[in-house]
């Protein structure tokens, strides 16, 4: 479907053309008409489906074609992370370039200057504010935020926000909004708590379901059964053995991110890290370096597993098994975006085998197992059902296996 079918204002159409969009994506085709007609929405759509433009385009169109109050916030978009706030604000800037829309991203971690700017915009009014919950709540508590004319509320990646413990902050913000408004809720998954949230804040919503909870077929997935001490040597081996241009490595904790980055640097592999201990400037700087291709290896916590739009990553390594199946799909979905192909390796320690098995269940099929090279010594075999994965203890099938073949990519 072409964008002309939505009857958008010509200034917005110019922004769409300039962004290079030709056809509306399925989520855009389904969501945009509902938003234009004033309906509340609950949509299960993951990142990569074009969901951001699916809500930004109709919001921009509504704001620029109606007589709206310039001295209030018209639309509030609440998102879980600073990175996503920055990304959506940039997206918004591109799409609204030929309009007179005013917007600002409000997120934690900025300096005093950012705070002054945010305060100014929030007290004088901005058409669209993209914010993280904690920072927005802090501003609201200070009493100057102009929300009395707000017409639209968007909750993006709502499941992620609830997982991060933002429920109370979100409800605090919502209490300060006019009751008559249009609400749009986007979530990759629809667990019970999201339904509850929806019941609390949405009014007779239209439901749209575009979820892809299976990873794209074009991603080559492999899992290595390893002991914890083999993980860092295996990363080094893989990075040296194959010619990957852009590698994103996920670790489950900040400590392992820091430790692994240190080791990579010690082995002269150009790598850097991103996690919540870094200040905002540093995080943005690292992301820019990575996106531009100047930094080939980025080690990250799950902060980057969702919503971050980086093309051309050819390898994702799960240094630790992700928390659940959805996280796995999100993490490995960072590779093979657009037309490119990608590879995703997951390192599974003995104690992570059960968690990995439940991920395979969600995927509906086993992830092929790759061999650890012989020079690494014994490696555990995959036997998740036995004694919480305590491999190598002499109980038959769980005995450690010595692999004779040290060629990579061969399946067990
Ligand atoms: P999102 O799911 O919002 O993270 O979007 C994923 C990527 O798709 C972003 O780079 C968008 O700029 C891009 N995109 C969104 N809508 C379209 C479209 N209709 N045509 C081409 N690219 C799009």
Describe this structure in words.
There is one protein chain. This protein has a seven-stranded parallel sheet with strand order 3-4-2-5-6-1-7, sandwiched between helices. It folds into two domains: 3-210, P-loop containing nucleotide triphosphate hydrolases (Rossmann fold, 3-Layer(aba) Sandwich); 219-376, Rossmann fold. It has 14 helices and 14 strands. By secondary structure, it is of the alpha/beta class. The model is unreliable at 387-412 (pLDDT under 50). Helices cover 37% and strands 15% of the residues. The structure holds adenosine monophosphate. Adenosine monophosphate (AMP) binds at residues 21, 23-25, 28, 47-53, 309. Adenosine monophosphate (AMP) is lined by residues 21, 23-25, 28, 47-53, 309.
Q: What hetero molecules are bound to the protein chains?
A: adenosine monophosphate
Oligomer: single chain
Cα distance spanning the termini: 45 Å
Quote the average pLDDT: 86
CATH superfamily of the largest domain: P-loop containing nucleotide triphosphate hydrolases
CATH class of the largest domain: Alpha Beta
* Biggest sheet statistics: 7 strands, parallel
Structural class, from secondary structure content?
alpha/beta
Uncertain stretches: 387-412
Features:
412 residues, alpha/beta, Rossmann fold, 2 domains, 7-stranded parallel β-sheet, 14 helices, 14 strands, 37% helix, 15% strand, globular, disordered C terminus, binds adenosine monophosphate
Outline of the structure:
The chain folds into two domains: about 5-210, P-loop containing nucleotide triphosphate hydrolases (Rossmann fold); about 220-375, Rossmann fold, CATH 3.40.50. It has helices at about 10-20, 25-35, 50-65, 80-95, 110-125, 135-140, 160-165, 165-175, 190-200, 230-240, 255-265, 280-290, 325-330, 355-365, and strands spanning about 40-45, 75-80, 105, 130, 150-155, 180-185, 205-210, 220-225, 245-250, 270-275, 295-300, 315-320, 340-350, 370. Helix 3 packs across helix 4 (about 80-95) and helix 6 crosses helix 8 (about 165-175).
């Amino acid at each position: 479907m072409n964008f002309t079918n939505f009857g958008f204002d010509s200034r917005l159409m110019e922004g769409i053309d300039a962004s290079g969009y030709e056809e509306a994506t399925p989520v855009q085709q389904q969501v945009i008409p509902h938003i234009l007609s004033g309906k509340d929405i609950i949509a299960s759509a993951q990142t990569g489906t074009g969901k951001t433009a699916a809500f930004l385009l109709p919001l921009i169109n509504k704001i620029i074609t109606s007589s709206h109050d310039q001295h209030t916030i018209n639309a509030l978009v609440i998102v879980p992370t600073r990175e996503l706030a920055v990304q959506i604000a940039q997206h918004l800037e591109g799409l609204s370039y030929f309009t007179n829309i005013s917007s600002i991203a409000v997120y934690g971690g900025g300096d005093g200057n950012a705070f002054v700017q945010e305060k100014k915009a929030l007290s004088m009014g901005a058409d669209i504010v993209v914010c993280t919950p904690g920072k927005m709540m802090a501003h609201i508590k200070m009493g100057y935020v102009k929300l009395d004319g707000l017409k639209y509320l968007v909750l993006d990646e709502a499941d992620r926000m609830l997982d991060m413990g933002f429920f109370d902050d979100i409800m605090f913000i919502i209490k300060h909004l006019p009751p008559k408004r249009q609400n749009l809720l986007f979530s990759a998954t629809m667990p019970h708590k999201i339904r509850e949230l929806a019941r609390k804040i949405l009014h007779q919503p239209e439901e749209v379901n575009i979820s892809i909870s299976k990873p794209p077929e074009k991603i080559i997935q492999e899992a290595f059964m390893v002991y914890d001490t083999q993980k860092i040597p295996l990363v080094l081996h893989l990075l040296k053995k194959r010619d990957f241009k852009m590698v994103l490595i996920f670790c489950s904790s900040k400590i392992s991110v820091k430790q692994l980055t240190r080791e990579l640097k010690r082995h002269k592999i150009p790598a850097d890290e991103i996690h919540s201990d870094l200040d905002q400037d540093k995080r943005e700087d690292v992301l820019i370096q990575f996106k531009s291709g100047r930094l080939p290896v980025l080690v990250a916590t799950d902060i980057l597993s969702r919503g971050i739009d980086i093309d051309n990553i050819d390898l994702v390594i799960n240094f630790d098994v992700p928390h659940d199946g959805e996280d796995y799909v999100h993490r490995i979905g960072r590779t093979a975006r657009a037309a490119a192909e990608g590879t995703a390796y997951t390192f599974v320690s003995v104690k992570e085998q059960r968690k990995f098995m439940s991920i395979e269940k969600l995927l509906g099929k086993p992830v092929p197992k790759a061999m650890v090279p012989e020079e690494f010594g014994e490696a555990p075999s995959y036997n998740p059902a036995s004694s919480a994965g305590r491999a190598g203890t002499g109980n038959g099938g769980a005995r450690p296996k010595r692999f004779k073949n040290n060629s990579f990519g061969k399946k067990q």
